[in-house]
Write the structure tokens for this entry.
Amino acid sequence: MLSKRKKTAQTLDDSKGNPLPAVYDSFLQDLKDRIRTAQLRAALSVNRELVLLYWSVGRDILTRQKNEGWGAKIIDRLSDDLTKAFPEMRGFRARNLKYMRAFAEAYPDKEFVQQVVAQLPWGHQVRILDGVPWTDIYSNIKYTCFIEHYIVFIHLHYVSAV
């Protein structure tokens, strides 16, 4: 009795000598590409959430300092308490909390942060805050265009490469 299975072209796997379908290599490459793309998308999603969290922490510090008269020392206390509560995280040092505050001050518009700014990694945000001489970054048209072009560059360079 003849087998009703359709036979496909086969090649030999050099490492074990077992026959593999001819399309195996392209199938494997497709899986690798999809896995890398999923990993990158997951990392970008985590980054976005972290940047949004840092913005909201900074906004809340600003609000409390303005409305309740909290001084600069509150940041040191917050740093100690948050570091104790989340010892596995490194993002709650006093210096980083000050960056969060500056970040929220530079970008008062939550919608702009969600749509544009949160696409950049936190380390890039810090470098930009350190390198930009003006205090009201958000209202500066040149800076807004720079951010948008930078995001396009990052996506073309890293996301498209996957």
Remarks:
- The two ends are 48 Å apart (CA to CA).
